[in-house]
Design brief:
By secondary structure, the protein is an all-alpha fold. The chain is built from 10 helices and no strands.
Length: 308
């Protein structure tokens, strides 16, 4: 009788995020590639010059009919989600390549703030809170998606180990962090408040539409909410037409304060946001004036109270 031979199955290799590269050496980026991406990203405002020259921005109030348009809610979720996904992906993959066993709590705090904002902005707001959204042109979708991927990679690489990587790197920053948190929170709350003021216009239209249908004997009939535009008056809307933009800038300034003046990706993010959102606000103001007239808009500024 032949001797029995036991064959041991090899153990499955231990899972490691290090082996989960989407684009080798680029996503997640090596330090050299991250530095290159971050350096080039600071020149993004140059590409926004075209926004100052042309009113073409097929989204929201200025959406245009096109056979290629994507439903607003779906497009918004797709184009705004990659930022926090890329950031978290970098934080899960890069540390092991740098010999970092545990990232500082402050790094995760900044990652959490960034993710909270974009979970609200990319998922909760469009998919669960907004009564309706205008269709979005693929040009806007792809542009915003690219912005998010690059921005999330820059900030994610910084927080994942290419920036501060030990608790000692954050020594003596308690007060700065607290001040930054207060600024960020104020901006975030203001952003959500003014977003909801805009939603209330649509909700009020839906209620009026429902009452009208019921008065005509169409109780229970559901239909698409008609597009209704008004000039909001509550909160900072008394002074500007795009206070949610302004509050978002305050939010990211607070984020930069937490990271410190040396947090280059946070600084670039603030500048890039202002560079691309300012011409949109000015374009939006021109839209409001065309629709409602100068008398209705009055002395309201576009985005910064009393200035712009």
């Amino acid at each position: 009788m032949a001797p029995m031979v036991l064959r041991l199955m090899p153990l499955a290799p231990k899972f490691s995020w290090k082996n989960m590269a989407v684009i080798e050496s680029w996503l997640p980026p090596t330090r050299e590639h991250w530095e290159l991406i971050t350096y080039l990203w600071q020149f993004f405002p140059l590409f926004t010059v075209i926004q100052w020259l042309v009113d073409f921005y097929p989204q929201g109030k200025t959406s245009i009919p096109s056979r290629f348009n994507v439903p607003g809610k779906i497009a918004w979720a797709i184009m705004e989600s990659p930022g926090f996904v890329c950031l978290l992906y970098c934080m899960l993959t890069i540390p092991s390549t740098q010999g970092i066993e545990k990232l500082p709590a402050a790094n995760w705090l900044m990652a959490a703030l960034f993710s909270i904002h974009y979970v609200y902005r990319a998922l909760i707001s469009p998919l669960f809170l907004n009564p309706s959204m205008s269709p979005i042109h693929p040009f806007v979708l792809l542009s915003a998606l690219s912005f998010q991927v690059i921005n999330g990679t820059c900030i994610g690489g910084y927080l994942a180990g290419y920036g501060p990587s030990t608790q000692q790197d954050w020594a003596g920053t308690t007060i700065r962090t607290q001040v930054g948190l207060l600024i960020f929170s104020a901006g975030f709350i203001g952003n959500m408040y003014h977003d909801d003021e805009l939603r209330e216009i649509r909700r009020a239209a839906a209620r009026n539409q429902k009452r009208k249908a019921e008065s005509q004997g169409e109780k229970g009939k559901k239909g698409k909410v008609d597009k209704v535009y008004e000039v909001p008056q509550n909160g900072l809307f008394r002074f500007v037409l795009y206070p949610h933009f302004f509050c978002e800038w305050i939010e990211w300034c607070g984020f930069w304060v937490i990271g410190g003046l040396g947090c280059v990706p946070a600084r670039i993010f603030v500048i890039n946001e202002i560079a691309t959102m300012t011409p949109r606000a000015l374009n939006g103001k021109r839209w409001y004036i065309r629709r409602f007239g100068k008398e209705k808009i009055g002395s309201k500024k576009a985005v910064i109270p009393g200035l712009l």
